[in-house]
């Protein structure tokens, strides 16, 4: 009889140690929540960086396409930089629209005209980066439609 009491107490003891208490689970969930919140902010910055890089690549591709299209068709074109988008026109018809990411703001709108030989008027479009406090200058050189982007911190 004494032996059966010891077996029962061992069973209770083994069963009692299984699993986690409610307080332990809440502590673990709170720590995971804090870690998740801390990791989301850098992920958003990384996403914003990629969106800006994609925008500059799309702009370069669309600009080169616009110059090529206008010269091949012997027509005229223009490129408008407005709030939130860049619009490419060929003979007063919209050819392409590129959305500007939310992290970039145009300081002021600008319009470039392209003649049938691919020559453009010169000018500068200023972009402000809202999240990293940087400024980008898109400088279009007078003449052959070449441009470059200059970044200032």
Secondary structure: helix percent = 40-55%
Low-confidence stretches: none
How much of the sequence lies in strands comes to 25-35%
- First-to-last CA distance: 84 Å
Mind telling me the C-alpha Rg? 30 Å
- C-alpha geometry: elongated
Major β-sheet profile: 4 strands, antiparallel
Helix and strand sequence: HHEEEEEEEE
Mean pLDDT across the residues is 84
* Spatial ordering of strands, largest sheet: 3-2-1-5
> How many H/I helices?
2
Summing up helix and strand content along with how strands pair, one would put the structural category as alpha+beta
Oligomeric status of the shown chains?
single chain
Total beta strand runs: 8
Structure report:
The chain has 153 residues and is of the alpha+beta class. Helix content is 44%, strand content 31%. It is built from two helices and eight strands, in the order H-H-E-E-E-E-E-E-E-E. The chain has helices at residues 2-16, 22-73, and strands at 77-82, 85-90, 93-99, 104-106, 110-114, 123-129, 134-140, 147-152. The strands form two sheets. The chain has a four-stranded antiparallel β-sheet, with helices on one face. A four-stranded antiparallel β-sheet has the order 4-6-7-8, with no helix packed on it. Strand 1 (77-82) and strand 2 (85-90) form a beta hairpin. The mean pLDDT is 84.
